[in-house]
């Protein structure tokens, strides 16, 4: 309790790195799954060194990050998974890419044991689907549908990071820049939309768009894109076909299968769309964005239900991150060709995309940030990456000065709505609970020291300084 706090961030990271170094020196080469070995210590040192550089600008941490990544990559003990999505499911729990995992057995674990799983699955039954004139109904599983407490959702902004292969030139592009989109979709003025243009459900009173979707917030127009298919194509196929392979292992989207092979529809009046239950525009425990997380959500038999038992695992460290960390360190050292080579390892092997052809520093940062976002999605990693990128500034943070406001954390997040015939869509701000109103302030580069701890220590004559801004 009376131990002095570290004097600064640099001292804190030195203590962290000292622990990692002790692990590298003292841990064995081999260990059972879920147990640590020296390569686990290298992996965590690789991660910590990159973060330490962002906060201290001590260039030796970049060399340490690269050295640590090299130790893991060159050990020959780990290989990139040939099935990215399976690595986060029961079938891939012991994939050779995983450096360290946390494992639970079904005898003491159920679907409700971890928020990473229960908070991603909807709470819906067939009566609710029928009452909203939605379809299709779910297959019977002893009277149960699904019982989760869905509140974590991938946003349209996240989904936009997954590139699509252009059917004409074979290049990887954002979905709305492909030939198949440009040739089949006419973009229209979002202000032309009226309440209820997409759907009106008499029994539940659900309308799309609804009043909350219209107009503007302090951060801009609520509906930012509106399009109409002009031929016999379907917008969900244009958007979701030929995508980065990681998309299919990470995201639940309209007209895919999920949860024991059920056909999931997320269009208006789909069986798991935002309005399938009564009382709210994005109904209780169904998607607020038009998507669900597939990654880290086990397929549980016969149904995903809060009390049903299941094995489970988290991936705590894996080989893909080592390539990502090394790429970032090379970018910071100005070694663009090496950085692009590293980001292309996961981009081509996990994503199935053509390689990045980035040449300039700006191009390399653009492709690297996109690659890290899709490679490390929903692994508890990206927030800390954004903190680093904000610390760097420049191309890493949309041209902002170093230590400035992180733009990606300071703008609204978005949802998608698709008509039942898949001929129209709009993208708009998520307005539920003012989710659009995201404001990153620079004090958030550090967490606050709990005031209660400062007060208790002050009572013993110890004076501590709170972190700036808190």
TrEMBL record:
Keyword list (alphabetical) reads: Cell outer membrane, Membrane, Signal
Q: Give the signal sequence positions.
A: none
Q: Does the keyword Iron apply?
A: no
> For this UniProt entry, what's an example GO CC term?
cell outer membrane
Where in or outside the cell it occurs: the entry states: Cell outer membrane
Domain RagB/SusD: start-end pairs: 124-470
The superkingdom of the source organism is Bacteria
Q: Which InterPro entries match?
A: SusD_RagB_dom (IPR012944), TPR-like_helical_dom_sf (IPR011990)
Q: Describe the family membership recorded for this protein in Swiss-Prot or TrEMBL.
A: Belongs to the SusD family.
Q: What is this protein called?
A: RagB/SusD family nutrient uptake outer membrane protein
Organism in which the protein naturally occurs: Parabacteroides distasonis
């Amino acid at each position: 309790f009376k131990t002095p706090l570290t004097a600064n961030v640099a001292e804190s990271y030195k203590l962290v790195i000292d622990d990692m170094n002790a692990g590298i020196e003292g841990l064995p080469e081999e260990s059972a799954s879920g147990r640590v070995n020296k390569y686990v210590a290298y992996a965590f040192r690789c991660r910590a060194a990159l973060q330490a550089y962002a906060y201290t600008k001590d260039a030796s941490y970049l060399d340490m990050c690269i050295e640590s990544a090299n130790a893991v990559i060159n050990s020959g003990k780990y290989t990139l998974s040939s099935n990215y999505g399976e690595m986060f499911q029961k079938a891939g729990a012991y994939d050779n890419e995983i450096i360290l995992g946390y494992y639970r057995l079904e005898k003491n674990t159920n679907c409700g044991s971890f928020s990473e799983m229960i908070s991603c699955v909807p709470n819906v039954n067939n009566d609710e689907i029928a009452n909203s004139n939605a379809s299709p109904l779910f297959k019977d599983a002893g009277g149960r549908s699904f019982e989760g407490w869905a509140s974590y959702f991938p946003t349209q902004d996240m989904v936009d990071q997954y590139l699509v292969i252009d059917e004409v030139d074979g290049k990887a592009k954002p979905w709305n820049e492909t030939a198949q989109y440009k040739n089949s979709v006419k973009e229209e003025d979002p202000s032309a939309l009226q309440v209820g243009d997409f759907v009106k459900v008499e029994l539940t009173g659900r309308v799309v768009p609804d009043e909350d979707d219209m107009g503007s917030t302090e951060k801009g127009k609520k509906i930012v894109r509106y399009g109409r298919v002009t031929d016999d194509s379907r917008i969900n196929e244009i958007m979701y076909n030929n995508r980065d392979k990681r998309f299919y292992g990470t995201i639940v989207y309209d007209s895919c299968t999920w949860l024991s092979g059920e056909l999931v529809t997320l269009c208006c009046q789909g069986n798991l769309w935002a309005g399938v239950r009564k009382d709210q525009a994005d109904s209780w425990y169904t998607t607020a964005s038009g998507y669900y997380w597939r990654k880290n959500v086990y397929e549980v038999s016969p149904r995903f239900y809060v009390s049903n038992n299941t094995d489970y695992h988290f991936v705590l460290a894996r080989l893909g991150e080592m390539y990502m960390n090394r790429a970032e360190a090379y970018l910071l050292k100005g070694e663009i060709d090496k950085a692009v080579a590293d980001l292309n390892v996961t981009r081509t092997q996990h994503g199935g995309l053509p390689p990045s052809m980035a040449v300039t520093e700006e191009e390399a940062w653009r492709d690297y940030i996109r690659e890290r976002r899709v490679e490390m999605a929903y692994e508890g990693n990206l927030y800390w990456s954004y903190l680093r990128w904000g610390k760097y500034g420049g191309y890493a943070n949309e041209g902002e000065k170093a230590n400035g406001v992180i733009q990606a954390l300071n703008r609204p997040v978005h949802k998608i709505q698709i008509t039942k015939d898949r001929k129209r869509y709009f993208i708009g701000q998520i307005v539920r609970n003012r989710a659009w109103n995201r404001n990153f302030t620079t004090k958030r580069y550090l967490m606050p020291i709990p005031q209660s701890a400062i007060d208790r220590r002050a009572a013993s004559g110890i004076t501590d300084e709170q972190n700036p801004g808190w």
